[in-house]
Amino acid sequence: MKHSYLIHRDYLSRNCIDIKVLGFTKNVSISIIVKKIEGTDLFLSYDGKMGIDMLVSPAISYAKKLVPEKAGFVEQMHGNIVKLRLGDIDKLQKVFEKVKLNNILFEQEDIVVEATIL
Question: How many CB atoms lie within 10 A of CB 54?
Fold first, then answer.
């Protein structure tokens, strides 16, 4: 049985992130596309102006240093692709025992998660 779940994203700012550098905050646009889903692994492609690719790599490295026991959760791959191992997140493991993730769609105001109940 396939279901779609709608997650309202009031807390997100229309595909933009704020980056603070040397005390200044700059709003940077970023496009994120779900390239594919393999089991519980999510492959995201990102693109943006102002050298967003030069910001993603250091951010991933910093996150891995902050939480070294979860460093394998995210992997930066060739071609502006980030692999997220969602099955490695403790709180999601039980979810993935009951649900198969089919797709994630980013809409203007929402994130739509399509899943199949196992």
Answer: 8
